[in-house]
Amino acid sequence: MATTTRRTQRGAPSLSRERIVEASIALLDEKGEEGLTFRALAHALATGAGAIYWHIADKDDLLDAACDAIVAAAMAGAARGATARARIRAVGLGMFDAIDAHPWVGTELARSPAKMPTVRILEALGRQVRALGVPEHALWMATSTLLNYILGLASQNAANRRLARERGLGSRDGYLDSVAAMWARLDAQDYAFTRSMGTQLRAHDDRDDFLAGIDLILDGIGLLRGGATPPPETAPAPPPA
Fold first, then answer.
1. How many CA atoms lie within 13 A of 72 on its CB side?
2. Among residues of the chain, what percentage have pLDDT more than 70?
């Protein structure tokens, strides 16, 4: 007698959620969100769509799971920092590199700001901000400032690289050269500062500038507790979350 339960779906016993998420990440990296369809995923996994629905509710669930896998890996690496300040910098750099490698992650985090991928980052940052001695009433302000800076700049960096490819400018350097050339044509009186930044724009290091921004925010956070933020070697180091 035929059964109507989902447990008889072709491939359901052998296909895991982890395999589906890994294949989804590969598709997203190659083709972006538009290329992630259940048909394409079923083809990549050599299975039927019914087997995927056994583990995944819908495309939103799939995107959340793929994004969360990338974020969880980045947060695991950040937990190895020796001090609270070092861990905050590691969280930031982990997300910068993750979004650089998987540009769609920034879009997904913006699309679902209250879901688990973002919550993981918020928790990782908030614990370390609290460990810095920030007063309770200022914790949200300090943590959300860090969160918005990290995700905003990391996403913008990834967007710049994508824009360079779409415009046929090749590498990051090609894109920056085109921007610097455009700035050089601006009016010398109305845009004196912007014109003067052309050389620095070409030469700057994205990751170094990104970390410098985190340090500036952390120095400001230090003022919330009545003094400068301690140097990395003296900041408190709570146990890993």
1. 9
2. 85
Q: Is residue 237 part of a domain?
A: no
Let me know: does 35 contact 24? Beta carbons within 8 Å: no
SS3 category, 181: helix
* Structural domain boundaries, residue 31: 7-56
Domain membership of residue 190 (yes or no) is yes
Q: Are 103 and 25 within 8 A, CB to CB?
A: no
Cα(227)–Cα(197) distance, integer angstroms: 33
In a domain, 238, yes or no: no
Does 190 share its domain with 100? yes
Paired tokens of 178:
């085109």
CATH code for the domain in which residue 22 is found: 1.10.10.60
The residue type at 37: T
- Among left, alpha and beta (phi > 0; psi -120 to 50; other), residue 132 is alpha
**Whether residue 127 sits in one domain with residue 48:** no
Instruction: Give the whole-angstrom CA distance, residue 51 versus residue 53.
Output: 6
* Alpha carbons 201 and 21: distance in angstroms, whole number: 38
Residue 121: predicted pLDDT? 97
Count: domains in the chain: 2
38 and 83: one domain?
no
For residue 170, the model assigns a pLDDT of 66
pTM of the model: 0.82
Residue type, 106: G
pLDDT, tens only, 79-136: 777 899 999 999 999 999 999 999 999 999 999 888 999 999 999 999 999 999 999 9
